[in-house]
Amino acid sequence: MKLKGILTSTAFAREGMKVRDVFSICVEAGVPALPYLNSKGERRGFVSLSSVMHHGCLPNYMVELAMVLGNHLSCVKDARGKVRELMNNPIDPYIEKPLRSITSDTPVIKAMAILEKYHSSFLFVFDGEEYRGVVTAQGIAQRMLEIDAERE
Amino acid sequence: MSEHADSVMNVIFGWDPVWVAGTLFVLTYAVIMTERVNRAIVALLGGMLMIMSGVLNQHAALRGEDFNTLGLLTGMMVIVAITRRSGVFQFVAIWSAKKVGAHPWGILLMLSVVTAVFSALLDNVTTVLLIVPVTLLITQELKVTPFPFLFTEILSSNIGGAATLIGDPPNIMIGSAVPFSFNDFLFNLAPIIPLILLMTLAVVWGIWGRKMHASETARQNIMEFNERNSITDVRLLKQSLFVLTAVISGFILAHQLHLEPATIALFGAALLLLLTNIRRSSESQAKDVHASFAEVEWITIFFFVGLFILVHGVERVGLLERLANAVLDFTGGDLTNTALMILWISAIFSALVDNIPFVATMIPVIKSMAPVFGGAENLAPLWWSLALGACLGGNGSLIGASANLIVAGYAEQAGHPIRFVPFMLLAFPMMLMSIIISTIYIYFRYLV
After folding, report:
1. Within an 8 Å CB–CB cutoff, is residue A59 touching chain B?
2. Is the pTM for the entire model greater than 0.80?
3. pLDDT value of residue A75
4. Lowest mean pLDDT among B229-233, B240-244, B341-345
5. Any idea what the CATH number is for the domain that residue A60 is in?
C-alpha cells in the first residue's frame, strides 16, 4: 500500500502570512500542519495548529498545572479580543523544525513507523522539490476503513 | 595495581608535574568560568588530560573519585524524579497557597518556606522547577508581579539547601570527605537557617510585602484550584513517600546502621524502582527504568567525575598543600581568622562562580591544615564555614547557583525576565546579611 491514495493536498504557509490564513487552509483541508516557505520560496520548516495554540495561548506553567486549574481564570477575560489578536499575528514566530518529509512512493507502513518514531500525527510528502501534500493518521485510518469495506 | 605503582608519575616530555597539573587545573577552571562550553565537557576533558599527561594514571584517578558524592547525588535524583511524577510537590505548593486564603504576602511566605524545606531535602534545581510554575500561575491569577516571589524563592532555595547534608552539592561533598553524618549537618547548620530565612523574609516584606494586594475575585480564583487533581497516581504517591521517608530515616540513623549516605540513597532508588515496576512486563519495566535514569542530571554527575580527577591531580603534586600553607601564613595559623576567611571568601567566590569547583578544591586544602590546628577533629569550624559560605554565597548573583539560572530561564520563557544587575543589587546585600549572621553564629558557637 503506497501513500499516493491517501495524501491531502494543501497550500504552503508562506513568510508573512497571518495566523488566520494558515488556520483557514488547515481547517479547510482537514490537516493539522502545513510546510512553511520563506520569501525566497525555500522550505524552512513547518507550522502546526497545536504549536500555534500552545505558544500563542498557553504559557508552560499552565500546561504543567493543567489538572489543578479551576473553572474561573483571569486569563480568559476578553478571550475574544485575545483570539482576534492571535489571528492577526504573523505566522513566522511559530515555525518549527525540522520539516520531516517522505516521497509519495513510500509504503504506508514506513510512514506509520516514522509517525510513531516522532510521536507525530502528520508527515509531509515531497517528490524532489515538488510538494505533494500531507499524510495524516486520520488519512491512513480512512484508507484502512476503505480496504475493510472493499472486503465486505 | 599497588599504591606504589599509582604514585609513579611519568609526565609527558619529562615536564615538571607541578607545572603540568597546575596549568591544567587553572585552564580548566578558567574555561568553566567563561561558561562558553558546557561544564561537564570541560571538567571531563581536564580530568582526562590530567591522566593522559601522566600526572595521574587511571588507577590513581579512580582513587580521586568520591563514590559517596556520586552515589548520593544519583540515588536522590532517581528518587526525586519518580516521586515528582506523583504530583505530591505541586499538591503541597498549591495547598499551602490556599491555606493563607490566597493573600499575596501569605502566598509568598508559604511558598518561600515550602521552597526552603523542599530544598533541604531535595536538590535545589528540582525544588525550583516544581515551585516556579505554581508561582507563575498564582501571580498571573492574582495579577501581581512575579519578581518578588521568584526572587524570594531563589534565596529560600539556597538558604534551605544549606541546612542538611543532602540539600546542596557542597554539603554532600563536605559530608563525604570529612565524613560528617546527616545529623552533624542537622545539629550544626540547621539551627541558624530559620533565622537567616526569617531575616530575609523581613527584608522582602519591607521592600514588597506590605504593598501586596489582590482583588477578592482573583483570590477566589486561586481558592478554586483543586490541588487534589495534581495527584496523578495514588499508588505511586504512597510508594514514593514510603521510600523517601525510609531514606531520610536511614540518613538520620546512618551512624547506627554503619552505612554511608550513598548506599542509603542508591538502595532507596533501587527499592522505589522495584516497587514501581513490580508486576509489569519486561518491556514496560525497561521503558520506566530508562525514563527514570534519563532524569538524572548527568551533566552534574560527569562534572563531578572530571572535577574529582582534576583536584586529585593537583593534590598529588602538592599544590593544594602549598595553597593551604599560604592561607595559614595569611591568617597567622589562627583558627578564628582562618574560619572567618574561609566563610567570607567562599561566599564571595560562590556568588560569582560555580561553588562546586571551589568546594572541591577547598576540601583537600582544609584537610591539610589538620596538623596546624591539632588534628582533624579541630577543623569543624572550618568545614561549617565552608558549607555556609558556599551555599549562602550562591544567593549573591543570578549566576551564583544553578537554581537561580533555572528560575531566571523559566521566568523569561513566561515573559517575566529577571535581569542580572537588578537582581544582584538586591540579592548581594541580602547575601552579605546572611554571611554576617553566619559569622556571628560560627564565632559564638565554635570559636569563643
Report:
1. yes
2. yes
3. 75
4. B229-233
5. 3.10.580.10
